[in-house]
């Protein structure tokens, strides 16, 4: 699993870790039951604080993407299809809201926006 962090992204490092691991899980790159790097190991590899990686893992566990076993490590949680669908729908709604805000700034009509959305969907 490759993670790329940027101090210029405007997002906190723990948020970048959270998003990238979440995306690996939702895309299936990380499989159910697969072990994640240890918190300390990931911190060392990324040359960041253990507190930062710990926060990302805690948030991933809170949101149901991973689970931890004391003394064993952290693992990818079972992918409940409904859970994955709900997470993807929430992300889609967020991105559509952002796209519609841009469309309004460009003074696009609703019809133009829907045509652009349909074209993007067909790609």
Automatic annotation (TrEMBL):
Protein source organism: Candidatus Borkfalkia faecipullorum
Pfam families referenced in this protein's UniProt entry, alphabetically: GntR (PF00392)
MF terms (GO), sorted A to Z: DNA binding; DNA-binding transcription factor activity
Keyword Disulfide bond: no
UniProt-listed InterPro entries: Tscrpt_reg_HTH_GntR (IPR000524), WH-like_DNA-bd_sf (IPR036388), WH_DNA-bd_sf (IPR036390)
Keywords (A to Z) from UniProt: DNA-binding, Transcription, Transcription regulation
Top-level lineage group: Bacteria
Domain HTH gntR-type: 11-79
Protein name: GntR family transcriptional regulator
CDD domains linked: WHTH_GntR
Keyword Transcription (UniProt): yes
């Amino acid at each position: 699993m490759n993670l790329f962090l940027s101090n210029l992204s405007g997002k906190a490092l723990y948020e970048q870790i959270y998003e990238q691991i979440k995306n690996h899980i939702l895309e299936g790159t990380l499989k159910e039951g697969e072990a994640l790097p240890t918190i300390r190991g990931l911190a060392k590899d990324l040359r960041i604080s253990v507190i930062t990686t710990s926060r990302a893992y805690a948030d991933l566990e809170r949101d149901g993407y991973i689970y931890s076993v004391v003394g064993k490590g952290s693992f990818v949680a079972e992918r409940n299809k409904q859970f994955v669908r709900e997470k993807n729908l929430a992300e889609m709604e967020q991105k559509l809201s952002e796209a519609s805000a841009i469309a309004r700034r460009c003074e696009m009509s609703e019809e133009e926006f829907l045509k652009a959305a349909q074209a993007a969907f067909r790609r």
